[in-house]
Design a protein that fits this description.
This protein is α+β, with helices and mostly antiparallel strands. Helices cover about 15% and strands about 30% of the residues. Strand 18 (about 350-360) and strand 19 form a beta hairpin.
């Protein structure tokens, strides 16, 4: 009799333990779906860059183990800046510790669905656009044929806007026609009447020429003794016709859109011409591309005009087999500015990045640290609190490259590598988003 009571008690305890364990395991409907909808669904849905949708239990359940692995090792969601407190960047995609814990417990606990009634509403997206429906879409005026093999120089395509008045861009999204073949896109804008960028302010008669707002280290040109770029140069059938103007928008893997803060915008002049610089790569299958750019316009001129300024150096060589070569670039601010964001860019040998501000009083501040740069996910790091940088500040960028056999993405560790357009060559390039401060500012940086 006693043995029977003990057996019943043990069975009851085991039942309670199993029930408690089941109740402690997160479910997709109640716990996991809200995290995926907030952090993953913009890319992981039909037609977007994510390799599979994650909008339903049926979508996510087969990938539960893969989700856990990538969340645990930090590769998803993709975020590469060192910002452990989640306070420096407005667009920090990394998951909180509690959200990671939910996803790991769910996957390791059998990935249960739970009660479908607990599901939050599925996010609604504008079809074909991550930023929402654009006010205008400007597309290449032709479908460019991309061959199956070979190396293509940068192609340039002009798109007339036919705007009847000045407009102000407050958001953009670039949509490649053939994402598998488009390495990057840079869209420039120039006035349509003269074919040239707007003229700089004229100097008064007999007076000095106005100082440009930014100046660059003169020692950043490609070395004179560098070999010619590592591909056969053919006559470019879509070469640039003229100076394309100022930076408007861009695309690279992981970066295709930007929504500026309210009251910020980039000017697009009446009758403007958009020139898109296209970098195509062949992949064994012939196809065509017709890239489009969606724009949203501000309803009135902004309080803050945005300009995007590239900083790049071509003066470097990455010696064959070398695991850690540092390459620096530098620019000087000749006026007070506000720095809103920065996009660092190298090719597949890039390993890490730093951006440092050196203030006129000699202080240095690291404003961006990317310890594990990933070529497959380009990121515009948007400061949560923009940085006020006084006249005389120097911005210094440093990139480290791994040209050794340890770099599994290295096309050929036996070759010295120089600046070049193609992916097997290298770049050291940063695009900074500024506004120029018209009023005197403090000499300290916002944090």
């Amino acid at each position: 009799m006693t043995r029977k009571i003990v057996t019943i008690a043990v069975a009851a305890f085991a039942g309670h333990a199993a029930l408690a364990s089941a109740q402690s395991t997160p479910t997709f409907s109640k716990d996991v779906a809200p995290i995926l909808y907030k952090n993953c669904s913009n890319c992981h849905r039909a037609g977007e860059i994510g390799p599979m949708p994650l909008l339903s239990y049926k979508d996510a359940r087969p990938f539960a183990r893969s989700i856990a692995m990538r969340v645990d090792n930090g590769t998803m969601p993709p975020w590469h800046a060192d910002d452990p407190t989640h306070t420096k960047f407005a667009n920090d995609r990394s998951l909180s510790a509690s959200d990671k814990d939910v996803l790991l417990k769910w996957a390791r606990g059998g990935a249960p669905e739970g009660n479908p009634k607990d599901l939050p509403p599925v996010p609604q997206f504008a079809e074909g656009w991550m930023m929402g429906k654009p006010d205008a879409v400007f597309s290449m005026q032709e479908s460019y044929p991309i061959p199956a093999t070979g190396t293509l120089d940068y192609k340039f395509f002009e798109i007339p806007t036919n705007l009847t008045e000045d407009r102000w861009l407050e958001a953009f999204e670039v949509r490649p026609g053939s994402r598998a073949n488009v390495h990057h896109v840079i869209a420039y804008v120039r006035p349509g009447d003269t074919g040239q960028p707007a003229a700089a302010p004229a100097a008064q008669a007999g007076g000095p020429r106005p100082t440009p707002p930014f100046s660059f280290d003169p020692n950043m040109r490609r070395p004179a003794d560098a070999p010619k770029q590592d591909h056969q140069a053919d006559e470019n059938d879509r070469a640039a016709k003229r100076n394309p103007g100022g930076w408007l928008a861009a695309y690279a893997p992981g970066y295709s859109l930007r929504v500026y803060d309210p009251g910020q915008a980039i000017k697009i002049p009446k009758g403007a011409i958009i020139t898109v610089q296209m970098h195509y790569t062949t992949n064994g299958t012939p196809t065509t591309d017709r890239t489009s750019i969606g724009l949203k316009f501000a309803s009135e001129p902004p309080k803050t005009e945005i300009v995007v300024v590239p900083l790049a150096t071509q003066n470097f060589v990455l010696k064959a087999g070398t695991p850690a070569t540092r390459v620096d670039a530098e620019m000087t601010l000749n006026t007070d500015v506000t720095l809103w964001s920065a996009i660092p860019h190298t090719h597949v040998r890039g390993a890490r990045w730093e951006v440092v501000a050196v203030y006129p009083d000699g202080r240095s501040e690291m404003i961006l640290n990317v310890p594990k740069y990933d070529f497959n996910w380009q990121t515009d790091y948007i400061f949560k609190t923009p940085l006020t940088l006084p006249k005389g500040t120097k911005l210094k960028t440093s990139a480290w490259y791994d040209n050794s056999t340890a770099n599994k993405s290295n096309p050929d560790p036996t070759k010295d590598v120089y600046w070049g357009d193609q992916t097997w060559e290298e770049m050291q390039f940063t695009a900074f988003t500024f506004s120029i401060n018209r009023m005197p500012t403090s000499t300290s940086a916002g944090k």
